[in-house]
Predict the 3D structure of the following.
Amino acid sequence: MSDDVFMEILARLPLKPLFRFKCVSRAWRRLISDDYFLRRLPLLTSAVFYHCNADAKEARFACTSGGGDLQECGMEFFPFHRDSDIVDCCSGLLLSYSRLRASFYVVSPITKRWVALPQTLKSTHLAVLAFDPCHSSEYRVISFTGWLAQGSELEVFSSATGEWAHHSLHWGVDSDAMTATLRHFAGVLYVVAFPNYIVAIDLDGMRCRRIEVPEPVKPEGSIDKSGGFLHYTCSDGGRLKVWMLEDADGGEWVLKHSIEVATILRQVPVKMHQQLQLLALHPEREVVYLRAPGKLVSYDLEKKEAEVVCEFRKEEEGVELVQIWLFPFSGHMSRCLAH
Amino acid sequence: MSEGTKEPDGGEEKVVLKTHDGQEFTVDMATANQSGTLKNLLSEVGSSSNNPQVIPLPSSITSRVLGKVVEYCQRHAAGGGRRGGMQALEQFDEELVELDKDMLLDVTYAAAFLDVPRLLDLTSQAVADAIKNMSVEEVRHYFGVVSDFTEEEEKVIRSECPWAFE
């Protein structure tokens, strides 16, 4: 059987057997590690759920199991799962914080591994996990410890050094203008800021760069890297616009796509008045991922075809879906907590 | 709801698919057009009822395998409008891929060769479902693959992702 046909089969496997079958033979390992194959895979999905009953706010985590279902990953292997909160998730890794111990934990529900980070010097106001499995197996935790008028004090933990380091940042816009819309790619943390900026924080050099976006930012905008280029996608409710920055160093924004949201809604069984929430762009393909109530929807911007990627109605029963993340398949995922 | 073009004499365009083992399958254009490969080919050469185009197929697509593909294409050319609607069509799809291993892999290959995307989707998913809970050894046996790793190499790969073997 040809490689192409094998890829059709492999692309439909859940994560666990896919990693396991690297052992079958050299040819299988080569196929599963192949860039071309990885680009064909749908984005993996993970989601955090909370029970809704007021007193017990125990979090649950689920991950795509293949075949379009979300499968709950039991958190019992992580001994502090009951007395800590999930504060962030990035590419399948969770950042958990225990108030009781004032400690951060990085947890991988897929590989069932976890690590306790050393103590921070100052208490945290906001913490972000930065992990890009396409780039490296290193992850960072950024703990913002104090806000300045146009910047912040922060501590950054790197899994490469195993230590926290103190820094201060000046981001070139008022701190009040910074939104909670942020994404991390290849060592750079991008934060959307009002009225029309993306602040790019280079975590290696700890420098900020202000990138002007072509239209006023909206809280539901999304920052993505696709085909190696920075993209800004926004929706005004009626239209979805995908902008691409031609050159990271001061290039022009190009409007790549502008789609009427109604045309997407017509193709999926979603009621017209229901909103679609932007989630992410595919890192390689011209595909945008959207969340509709109880569903994850992909829309192929070239073929103009919408498809329901997964339904999480069953998982959502009696619980509240807090956040859903999409991340690309990568071998780095299995190695990042392997100590 | 056949999409076949009526010829002036009222006959419908047909095409003959000939397998390596000598069997011939005569199908209408709507059925043939379910296959991207045949559609492209026929758009260039054309076919008619009196003198239908004969298309020879590679030896890997036996008459038994082609029979399955033709069954799928005929049913889907008719669409959900016939015989119980979309629900019946979905059930037909489900039952179609209930095949033994060799047949399933052969139909998967044929669906890829003939470019029948939905059928390829169905059969690939059926294979993936069949192997997803298998051990590495069982998968080797399933596909008739012999490991070319040394014991040491295999140990290293296993140690990289022990969670995948739990």
Notes: The beta strands of chain B are 14-18, 24-28, 53-56. The mean pLDDT of chain B is 87.
